[in-house]
Specification:
The complex is a heterodimer of chains A (about 325) and B (about 375).
Chain A (H helix, E strand, L loop, with lengths): L7 H9 L2 E12 L2 E12 L3 E5 L6 H8 L7 E6 L2 E3 L3 H5 L2 E4 L11 H10 L9 H7 L15 H13 L5 E5 L7 H16 L3 E5 L3 H7 L2 E6 L2 E7 H6 L3 E7 L2 H9 L6 E5 L2 E6 L6 H12 L4 E7 L3 H14 L1
Parallel strand pairs in A: 3-8, 3-9, 6-7, 7-8
Antiparallel strand pairs in A: 1-2, 1-4, 4-5, 9-10, 11-13, 11-14, 12-13
Helix pairs in contact in A: 5-6
Chain B lengths: L30 H12 L2 H28 L10 H33 L2 H7 L4 H6 L1 H26 L5 E3 L2 E3 L5 H10 L1 H7 L34 H20 L7 H29 L3 H20 L6 H5 L2 H7 L29 H25 L3
Antiparallel strand pairs in B: 1-2
Helix pairs in contact in B: 1-6, 2-3, 2-6, 3-6, 3-10, 3-11, 6-10, 7-9, 8-9, 10-11, 10-14, 11-13, 13-14
Chain lengths: ~325, ~375
């Protein structure tokens, strides 16, 4: 059913949906391998959403299922409030996506490739080719053949291909691949600008630092399942607290803390003690550690709480899963 | 396992400016889709050079060489054009190679989006996959049809304007375009040539001695030699009988192809190109790659079709009739030699006893079935393929 065949009430209902992406029990199998395993994903509208996972976790497969590039075996999906695949054409009309490495017809220029892609979209898409090329910084090379483009330029062209559809939802699979630091910064700024315009950006990446600097919320996928999702600040609030303590007699200090009632993992390193406390531990415990050391005659030169990073948290979560 | 389900506060949906009113789910491709697909194919320089070389280059070079040879040494080299050159080029070169290059174009159109990674971008747009497939057909035809037409026009022009000025029938120069009565009248006036040079299969002719130049050797009465010399009246009557038997064969010989034959041949070549394009497109879309599809199409045209059109295998006769090349050979216009050589009769492919017998209706059905089935298979694969 095309967009025109749907009543306006249906469009209004879809627009009222608070989720840009919503999946329930989404499953995709390749033989015995379950690449996407009952995924429950909720991506709010108007945010940058990171989709993280180790290699082979099923990130790209989930994106392909969402976009209808491959069929799901079970579950339901909706994009921008429209159920997919039933109203796939209407939903994808306002979705732009890069999946895997962006590839184009090498014998055509960047502009001609975009003309091909604009031809399958609405008429207005043709007018957006120039501005999209400008926005990704390719206007000067738009009339060169794509076969002469670098990997980074193809990434930019992929983003431009997304933008010609004036998307409300962008799904970008590793958009930083092949970009130099300046290019990564430009893409990051562009993503933030797109979000500021009210669009939703789903970013799949293994560059955790980039995700942390760009995204408001993340989901972590492992072996086809989403194991965590939510705002980054809330997720990190549950992460383990690491204290770096520079002091005299580190071995005796370790014994003192170990002999107390404080539950902690303590390691002696070149910089002193590394104390790992469970997520959500009250700040009073930090003061208690300091008191035990001072009372025990240990000179404390420095006591610092190490800021939990998404990378540390990600490794913590995924390694725990790997161990189990 | 713990799942944090807290969400950030979603913002209201942005107004969807210019919301799709483009019938994106419709299977009918838009003009812009066809135009850009045409551009994509036309920009393939190697493919276009091959198409132009085969459809236009080969006949042009061949005819140019003949024109030059005839211009410099007309006694050794005959005229560049004419009926026989026309039939040889159309049925021998343009028919086979036209099919192959059209198939190559079809195979390219059917596979490159997938192999070059563009298919995914197109599918993500939400556009009907069937429309994406169907857009390739008019785009491919917009390339193949004019190319075949240009090459064919060159052949027609040379064959008509550089045709021989006299018709040579069984080694005898005969006026062109005579009616049956006119032909018999001409034979009566040239009884020597007719009796000595024309073929005849039947009884009742006087036995006359012929000289080296196609003239009857006169025998003096009373001298030794063949029996009684026929009278001039008897010779005229015999020549008319020979002419009557030869008329149908004479009538199918022309200095240059008729307008009717050229029109029919042109349409026949375009049909062959259409078949090559659509079958190649469907096959490549089904296989997902170009090279194997092109090889299979060449094998079909160059190996299987000649074999199946000539060999009469009793248990496989219906299978042979189902080969598209056999069916198109049956639709060849009258006057063209049929596939694989052997010369054509007035009835075209259907008139040639060397071909596996097949009615025109069956041939048309076979062709339609090939076009429909391969298009359906290609479209089905495109609609179900993982992108």
């Amino acid at each position: 059913m095309s967009a025109t065949a749907l009543p306006d009430a249906f469009h209004r209902l879809a627009a009222e949906s608070q989720w840009a992406v919503e999946t329930h029990g989404l499953t995709k199998r390749f033989g015995d391998n379950v690449a996407v395993d009952g995924v429950e994903l909720l991506v709010p509208r108007g945010c940058a959403f990171g989709y993280l996972g180790p290699n082979g976790a099923g990130k790209t497969t989930l994106i392909r299922v969402l976009l209808g590039l491959t069929q799901a075996d079970a579950g339901t999906t909706s994009l921008l409030g429209y159920p997919v695949p039933k109203h796939r054409d209407v939903a994808l009309a306002r979705v732009g996506a890069i999946v895997d490495e962006p590839r184009f017809h090498g014998h055509l220029t960047g502009r001609q490739n975009l003309q091909m892609l604009a031809a399958v979209r609405e008429r207005e898409a043709r007018d957006r080719i120039g501005p999209s090329l400008e926005r990704v910084g390719l206007a000067g090379r738009a009339d060169d053949k794509v076969s002469k483009y670098s990997m980074g330029m193809r990434q930019r062209l992929g983003v431009a291909a997304c933008l010609i559809g004036d998307p409300q939802l962008l799904i970008l699979d590793e958009p930083m691949n092949g970009l130099d630091p300046a290019g990564m910064a430009e893409i990051r700024d562009m993503i933030l600008a797109l979000v500021a315009e009210g669009r939703t950006v789903v970013l799949s990446s293994h560059l955790l630092d980039e995700v942390e600097r760009t995204c408001d919320a993340v989901a972590i996928v492992d072996r086809g399942k989403i194991i965590r999702q939510g705002p980054i600040s809330e997720l990190l609030a549950g992460a383990a607290v690491v204290l770096q303590v520079e002091c005299s007699e580190p071995d005796r200090a370790r014994a003192l803390i170990g002999g107390s009632s404080i539950a902690a993992r303590i390691e002696v390193g070149t910089l002193g003690l590394g104390i790992t406390l469970a997520g959500g531990t009250p700040r009073d415990v930090v003061a208690e550690i300091n008191r035990i050391l001072v009372t025990g005659g240990i000179s404390v030169y420095r006591l610092q709480e190490v800021q939990a990073s998404l990378e540390a948290w990600f490794l913590q979560v995924t390694s725990r899963l790997g161990a189990s | 396992m713990v799942t944090v389900t807290a969400q950030i506060s979603p913002v209201p949906a942005a107004p969807q400016s210019g919301m799709s009113r483009d019938h994106r789910g419709s299977p009918i491709p838009t003009g812009a889709m066809i135009a850009t697909r045409f551009m994509e194919l036309r920009k393939r320089r190697g493919l276009m050079i091959a198409l132009i070389l085969v459809n236009i280059g080969i006949p042009t070079v061949f005819l140019t060489v003949r024109l030059l040879a005839h211009a410099f040494d007309p006694k050794s080299y005959g005229p560049a054009g004419g009926y026989s050159i026309y039939t040889g080029l159309v049925a021998g070169v343009m028919y086979v190679f036209g099919f192959i290059v059209a198939a190559t174009l079809g195979c390219t159109a059917g596979s490159v989006d997938l192999s070059e990674g563009m298919f995914r971008h197109l599918v993500v747009s939400g556009r009907s996959r069937l429309a994406l497939y169907l857009a390739r057909i008019p785009a491919g035809l917009a390339i193949v049809v004019p190319l075949v037409a240009v090459g064919f026009t060159i052949v027609c022009a040379v064959c008509v304007f550089a045709a021989p000025t006299r018709l040579n029938y069984d080694g005898v120069n005969v006026p062109v375009g005579l009616s049956r009565a006119g032909f018999e009248n001409w034979a009566a006036n040239h009884s020597d040539l007719v009796m000595c040079d024309f073929g005849y299969n039947g009884p009742g002719l006087p036995n006359v001695p012929c000289g080296p130049n196609g003239q009857i050797i006169k025998v003096k009465p009373g001298s030794q030699g063949p029996a009684a010399q026929p009278t001039p009246a008897q010779l005229k009557a015999a020549a008319i009988a020979v002419a009557r038997q030869n008329y149908s064969s004479y009538a199918s010989d022309f200095l240059y192809p008729s307008d009717s034959l050229m029109i029919k041949s042109g349409l026949w070549l375009e049909l062959e190109a259409l078949i090559g394009l659509l079958v190649g497109l469907g096959l490549a879309s089904l296989l997902g790659q170009r090279t194997v599809a092109v090889i299979l199409m060449i094998v079909l045209e160059v190996v299987l079709t000649p074999i199946f059109s000539r060999a009469r295998i009793a248990h496989l006769l219906n299978l042979q009739r189902a080969v598209v090349g056999v069916a198109t050979a049956h639709l060849a216009p009258g006057g063209l030699p049929v596939l694989g050589g052997g010369g054509g009769g007035p009835g075209g492919g259907n008139g040639n006893p060397l071909l596996v017998p097949e009615s025109t209706t069956v041939a048309v059905c076979v062709i339609i079935a090939w076009l429909v089935v391969w298009t359906a298979l290609g479209a089905w694969r495109m609609m179900t393929r993982d992108a």
